[in-house]
Amino acid sequence: MQDTQPDRHALRGLMRQRRRALSHSEQQLAAQQLVTQFKQHPDVQAAKRIAFYLANDGELNPLPTIHWLWAQRKEVYLPVLHPFTPGHLLFLRYTATSPMVRNRYGIEEPELDVLQVVPHSALDLICTPLVAFDSAGNRLGMGGGYYDRTLACWHQHRLGPKPLGIAHDCQQVDAVPQEEWDVPLPQLITPLRCWQFS
């Protein structure tokens, strides 16, 4: 799954620069607004097990939302790079006391513990980070294809956890160039809006 379109590469660079340009106060406000959006989202209210991510490279910070989910007694899981299957993710239970390590991308993830792994099919929602999105629900990721592989079964058969994109409002573009393996999102949350695509 290597990008073959140079415009995807250029767009990825532009949008990463755009979200990194947000000030600290803008990031803090966006993180609090995300909590507000989650509080009123019906799929979130119904979910018991929710996979999230930890912010990197200017991504929308989900930690205030994760703390709110914990207060609602919902289980939170984080992606961990699969140690034996390149390009794939495992999901581990994440709590306030989870021992953390940095993966090869420099992103914090829970230390691998097989007792904390849950099959991704047992999750209710997978909150996916992204670099850019458009009004049709097309998503541009970082280029590794990790979430496209994770969500392929849902995309093809509507089985497994429902994806929920998470992004800053400034990450919207007119059109995301598509590749055949891309998994469009059925819904997405930004600080100012909840998008429903299908």
Automatic annotation (TrEMBL):
Q: Which residues form a coiled coil?
A: none
Instruction: State the Gene Ontology terms under molecular function.
Output: 5-formyltetrahydrofolate cyclo-ligase activity; ATP binding; metal ion binding
Q: Which Gene3D superfamilies match?
A: NagB/RpiA/CoA transferase-like (3.40.50.10420)
Residues noted as binding ATP in the record, renumbered to the chain: R8, H9, A10, L11, R12, R139, L140, G141, M142, G143, G144, G145, Y146, Y147
What superkingdom does the record give? Bacteria
Q: What's the Enzyme Commission number for this chain?
A: 6.3.3.2
Pfam families, alphabetically? 5-FTHF_cyc-lig
Q: Which InterPro entries does the record match to this protein?
A: FTHF_cligase, FTHF_cligase-like_sf, NagB/RpiA_transferase-like
User: Its catalytic activity?
Assistant: (6S)-5-formyl-5,6,7,8-tetrahydrofolate + ATP = (6R)-5,10-methenyltetrahydrofolate + ADP + phosphate
SUPFAM superfamilies for this protein: NagB/RpiA/CoA transferase-like
What's in the keyword line of the UniProt record? ATP-binding, Ligase, Magnesium, Metal-binding, Nucleotide-binding
Q: Where does substrate bind?
A: L54, E59
Q: Which cofactors does this protein require?
A: Mg(2+)
Report the record's Gene Ontology biological process terms.
folic acid-containing compound biosynthetic process; tetrahydrofolate interconversion
PANTHER family xref list: 5-FORMYLTETRAHYDROFOLATE CYCLO-LIGASE (PTHR23407:SF1), ATPASE INHIBITOR/5-FORMYLTETRAHYDROFOLATE CYCLO-LIGASE (PTHR23407)
Which family is this sequence assigned to?
Belongs to the 5-formyltetrahydrofolate cyclo-ligase family.
Query: What is the name attached to this protein's record?
Result: 5-formyltetrahydrofolate cyclo-ligase
- What is the species of this protein? Aeromonas cavernicola
